Amino acid sequence: MVVPELLTTKKPASRKHLGLLEKKKDYKLRADDYHKKQNTLAALRKKALEKNPDEFYFNMINSQLQDGVHTAKRPKEEAEVTEEQKRIMKTQDIKYVEMKRVAEAKKIERMKGELHLLDADRKQKNKHTFFVDTKKEVKSFDLAKQLNTAPQLVDRVYNRPTLKTLETKTIQGAADPCSVKKLARQRDHQYRILSQRIDREKKMFVISQKIQTRKDLQDKAKKVKVKKETATSAAIYKFESKRKR
Hints:
mainly alpha; two-stranded antiparallel ribbon; elongated
C-alpha cells in the first residue's frame, strides 16, 4: 500500500531548518492509512483464530502458486479428435465410412459364428451346478461319470463326446498333442483378429457419428451442447424443436 505524500506549503526562510511542516490534511491521510492497515491485520487475526482445522474446499487442491499468485489448475483435457479421425474425416465422406463399418460388422458376425467364443480369455466362465441329496454323495461325486465322458475331456467346454460316442465312432480331426497345440494357436490368432475387427468397427462408428454431427451443426436452428466431444464419442446437441407446417 502506497503511503500518501505529504501536502506541504511554503514556509518562511527562518523556519526551513525545522524541516517539512505537517498540516492537518497530511495527518488525516496518514492516520486513515494507518487505521486501514490495523483493521486489516485485526480481521486476518480473527479469521485465523476462528479457522476450522478440518475445513476443506476443492480450490485447496485445484490451485497452484505461479509467481507468488494463486491460479487455478487447468485439468488435462482429453483430445477431442485423434489424428486418425482427422485424417479420415478430411478425406472420406460419411457414406464411405458407414460402408466400411457395415462390412466390418458383417465380418465380425461371421467370425463369431465360426468361433462361438467357446474358450475366449475375456469370456466369463459358465457354471454348471449339480444337485445331490446327501453330503456323502458330495464327497464321492465324480464329474466324469456324471457327464458320461472320459476324465481327460472334463475340462473342455466344447467337443466333449460321451463314452458311447467314443466307443461307437472314430475320432475325427487332430488327435496327437502337436496337432492340438497347433489348432489352439490358430484359434488364439483368430480371436486376436476378431478383437482387432471389433475395435476397428467401434472406431468407424465414432467417426461416422462425428461426421454426422458436423453435418447437423450446419443447420441454423438453435441448439445447446449437452455433452462434449471426446476421442471415443461424438458431441451431443439438443436442437430446438420445429413445428412442421
